[in-house]
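Sequence design from tokenized structure. All designs in this work follow the same two-part layout: the structure record, then the generated sequence. An example of the structure record is given first.
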């Protein structure tokens, strides 16, 4: 009886490491490196709208964008879709008298992805329509009327597409999707059989 139980314990001890030996390599994911090249396109969209209505925009004011689609390197996503990006207003002109239209000029600064800030380059702008034709007509009829004619405000709406580009080569580490776990088959019945039953 003692010999049979000892044989059973030895069989379990030998069989157990087989499971660990087969699952351990699958749990370690290989990491590869690549480069996100300067000049690579990064499609963005506005996360907020900008307008000269209300005369609240200021030069130097920052605004939010996000990536419109994932950015890939060697088939792996390095900047996920929806990653936050930041832009800055470089020029503001409010609409005014004599048909003057509003204008917004801005630039893209960077995108944040996986805890890293990546510099971008790119610009966006909008210009309202001028009221020049109306001013000319009004001045012909009544000179002072042209003073009260204004152009339209500039608007860059929420969700508007913005083209940006990577401003520097960026080294990235990519962890590919892990392989499916290998599970060892159950121990063969011959290992656990043959234990004498005490009568």
């Amino acid at each position: 009886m003692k010999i049979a139980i000892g044989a059973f314990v030895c069989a379990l001890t030998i069989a157990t490491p087989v499971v660990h030996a087969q699952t351990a390599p699958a749990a370690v994911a290989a990491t590869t490196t690549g480069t996100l090249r300067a000049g690579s396109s990064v499609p963005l969209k506005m996360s907020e709208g900008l307008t000269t209505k209300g005369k609240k925009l200021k030069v130097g004011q920052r605004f939010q964008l996000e990536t419109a689609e994932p950015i890939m390197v060697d088939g792996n996503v390095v900047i996920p879709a929806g990653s936050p990006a930041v832009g800055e207003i470089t020029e503001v002109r409010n609409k005014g008298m004599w048909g003057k239209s509003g204008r917004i000029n801005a630039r893209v600064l960077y995108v944040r992805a996986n805890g890293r800030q990546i510099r971008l380059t790119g610009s966006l702008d909008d210009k309202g329509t001028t009221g020049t034709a109306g001013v000319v007509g009004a001045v012909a009829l009544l000179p002072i009327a042209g003073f009260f004619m204004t152009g339209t405000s500039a608007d860059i709406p929420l969700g508007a597409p913005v083209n940006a580009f990577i401003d520097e080569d960026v080294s990235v580490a990519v962890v590919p999707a892990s392989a499916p776990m290998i599970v060892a088959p159950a121990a063969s019945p011959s290992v656990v059989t043959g234990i004498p039953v005490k009568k």
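The two ends are 11 Å apart (CA to CA). We note this feature because it recurs in several other targets discussed in the main text.
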